[in-house]
Structures are given as C-alpha cells and as structure tokens.
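INFO  loader      accepted 1 record
INFO  loader      residues=265
INFO  predictor   begin
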Amino acid sequence: MAMDTSSQDQAPGGFLHPTLPSPPSTTVNSPSTARLILPQPRSRPLKPGSSKESDFLIYVEQKLLAISRRYENRLSAALGEEENPDIEGRGYKGIGEELHDLEAVIDVVWISGTPALQIAFLLTIALTVTTSLPSFPFAPRPTFQLLRKMDLAFASLLRGSNIETGEPLPGSETGKSRLSTTEKVRMRGIVERTRVAIVEVAGEDGSLADVNTVSQVQTDIEEDFNVTTDDEMDNLEDESSHRRWEMDIARVYERTIVELGIALD
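INFO  predictor   done
INFO  writer      dumping tokens
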C-alpha cells in the first residue's frame, strides 16, 4: 500500500521524515541553482545501515510501488470502471501523470547523494519509463522533460561529477564513475531501448510526420492565393512542432551515450 503523506510533516526536498536527506537550505533558491535541472544533492552519501538510509529506502520503494499499481490500473481508468478512484490508487489516464510521479521520485533519489542508491533506483525508473511509453498516447513535453533529467543524471554518474555544474558528486570526490561494468552495460541497453521506443510511439502518434510534405502544401497554397490564411498559419505551426519534436527525439540520452562511449571503450 502506498505511503499516506497527508498525515506526516514533509521536509525540504520531498522527504517525509525529518531525518531524511534534504537539499541545503542555503542553495535551494539561490540564483546559481534556480535554472538547474537536477536538484541540489546532500553533501555526503547516506551512511549504509543508518536510520536515514532505511527511511529513504522505505519511502522510495513505496512510491515506486504506488506508481506501479496505478500503471497496472490504467485500463480501468480508461474505461471508467474504477471502484475506488482515489488519487493514490486510481489508474493513470495518460503518460504525463505517470511521468510527473516518476520525476518526483527522481528528485528524491538524486538529493540522497548516494551513488549506489542513485544508480540502482534510476536504472529501475529508466526501465519503467521505457516499458510505459508504448502503453499511452505520446505526450512530448512531459516525456522529453523527464528524459532530459534522466540523461543529466546518468551522464553525471558516469562522469563522477555534475554535468551541469562540474562539481564532484557526493561519494565521487575523485571525479570518477562509481558504476560497475555490468551497470554500464545495463544502462546502455535501457538507453537503446528507450530511443527505439520514442521513435515508435512518436511515429504512431504522427509526431514524426513528413515535414517536407507539409512544406510543399504550404508552398502550393501560397502560390495559388498569395495570402496568409489561418489554415496556412496552422500548417506552419504544425511543421515547426514536428521539427522540434524530431530534434528532441534525436537528443534522447545524448549525453549519456557520449559518457557510455568513453566509459566502455
């Protein structure tokens, strides 16, 4: 059963227990971190076997379990057959809802500043995303937003330093990767599967439509009427949207691929 968060005091960074790790208060809203995609991690990794680590594990595992249950109930949500449509248990109606919940877990995992836990949970989340994508209509914005964050997290772990800031990661002060060869190979497999899945779901949704055809239609209209109508403007906007999503698709896990190439050479 998912953890009830309504009756517990939340600590900064999304943790429920006051002893759990949270981002330093002096950096949460500082100008230097305001535009960063990854949240500020704690300065030191969680101590193995500590109460903080135990609370962290319970929290994240219960959140992932709740997300899994909502994913499994997605068909009931689509058919409107849910008996208990509460927010914790109802099925997801779209990929955006699931990605929103997963992104919150990603932030908590990253804030932990503990490489071993970050690697294990982020690999699990990445596989969850890949599995879920074909089950819903394509939603470009939340999909690329989450994958961009995952890309930065993976690339940072592979490098041993924060890709955005250049600072060594907690537990990786030497600036070296903490991933084993097995973990790197697994990561590469998930990255490759995700890139294939994105192309497939985007193609089914029409987000990879032939922009050359759209351009030719636009040219023909302009030659015939030599005016700019509302329909023409819509065509131009559609073409721009297709091109933007195609660029985002090509960039999925691009930094991770570079770091994996270096790490596995």
